Known about the structure:
The complex is a heterodimer of chains A (242) and B (275).
Chain A: E1 2-13, E2 16-27, E3 31-35, H1 42-49, E4 57-62, E5 65-66, H2 71-78, E6 81-84, H3 96-107, H4 112-125, H5 141-154, E7 159-163, H6 171-186, E8 190-194, H7 198-203, E9 207-212, E10 215-220, H8 222-227, H9 232-241
Parallel strand pairs in A: 3-8, 3-9, 6-7, 7-8
Antiparallel strand pairs in A: 1-2, 1-4, 4-5, 9-10
Chain B: H1 5-46, H2 53-77, H3 82-99, H4 104-120, H5 124-139, H6 145-171, H7 174-182, H8 187-217, H9 229-240, H10 243-271
Amino acid sequence: MSIVEFRNVTKRFGANTVLDGISLGIDAGEVVVIVGPSGSGKSTLLRCINALETIEGGDIIVDGLSVRGKPAQVRLLRREAGMVFQQFNLFPQLTALENVMFGPLHTRAVPRDEAHEQARALLARVGLAERENHYPGQLSGGQQQRVAIARALAIKPKLMLFDEPTSALDPELRHEVLKVMQDVAETGMTMVVVTHEMEFARKVGSRLLFMDGGRIAEDGNPEELLTRPSSQRLRDFLQHVS
Amino acid sequence: MVFDWASIWAAWPDLMAGSWMTLKITALGLLGGSVIGGLFGIVVTYVHVPVNRRNAAWVVAFVAVLGLALHFAGGALAAVPGGVLAAVLLAAAALLLWRFPQWIGRSVSIFAQIFILLIRGTPIVVQVMFIYFALPLLVNLRIDGFTAAIFTLMINSGAYIAEIVRAGLQSVPKGLHEAGLAMGLPFHKIMAFIVGPVALRRMIPTMGNQCIISLKDSSLFIVIGVAELTRQGQEIIATNFRAVEIWGTVAVIYLMMTGCIALVLKVVEHKTRIA
């Protein structure tokens, strides 16, 4: 059974149709990489999964819950999906450790000691054990994004959403974030990743979606699609990114 | 001219009483103003009421009905005790909103915006005289000078603080709000633990401004005879004619009070700075 299911989803911004009748099932354990030109709707598709964007038509079911449910149900759904943003969005008034503890304390009512232990373990896992008392402003972009991944993992989600996680980073800082994402993928986590990193798609992705004009133009094995792109549009796109 | 220190010592107890009154009015006024401003600021920021013909028509119709009601029922209203009238109006509003809960956000937002427009758009002296002298004639609501002063400062600072709060909230990157939403947090927790703490820090300098302005504005309540510091000074001079000594002392006392506010806020700003 799919953990995320899009049923004929349409999304408009004014007169502009951003998602044009998307139907898609994502199974538990898949690492789905979404690529496409800017404005193709890939970020919007990701943000619809945890209802950061509302949809006009169709429905999305995440772990049995609809994104069109009542606010309380939408909050439950969001707790099943950890999100990592392009701009990190760490809470600037809290240390790295407090950022990671925040979700468990406020959404899952985990006892403080337990949240503390778990947060330290997660920071160690993303290689930032010695930075736990630093504020976001004292960390590099790559370090901030790794804290953000730990923060998203801390609420024990069933899937992880990554919205261009390396696009705001200098090239030499990207690999440290991609490495952590690969580690997360190797634990069997379901992941949906919007990115321009074709190497990551090829190495870590189990499925590649190519979006164009609000539709899924290609859907298949990353290795195959990237090595032998079947459509002219995908060939054009790959020429531009690599 | 000989500077007469003795006149200051003689006036000192009255000046201290006036200072104490000024502090009470300012503190209570700002406290109430912060509650009003906090609530209205949050609502105006997050409940969007589009400025379009339909909403404008609603506002115009509401004001017209209110004006007509006052015009025709004005005389009769003056016979009803003010408290009763206020209770009836509040009950009617509460009943309407209880019946139509989907109107609450937008009604409060429209009310807040009209409130801000009215209060920022009129001088505080006119406001306090309206409340103290005109309200009793209009709706039979008589309040003493002290209460009128506090109430005026509350609504006056409330309108400005609402805009300070809005500016503070809007200055916080939207991504922080989204990060809270993505965790599955409800709005009040996002406000209390994520956006609020960041916005509050950014509001400190402008809130300091508002505290100082409100304290000095309380001197304008001289017009309704409240025995605050400026009024005390004026009354002392009326008997001893020592303008230099008394106004000089009054100015220094104000300066010390505003100086304390500035100092306290500097310390708060320093202590809460994010590394």
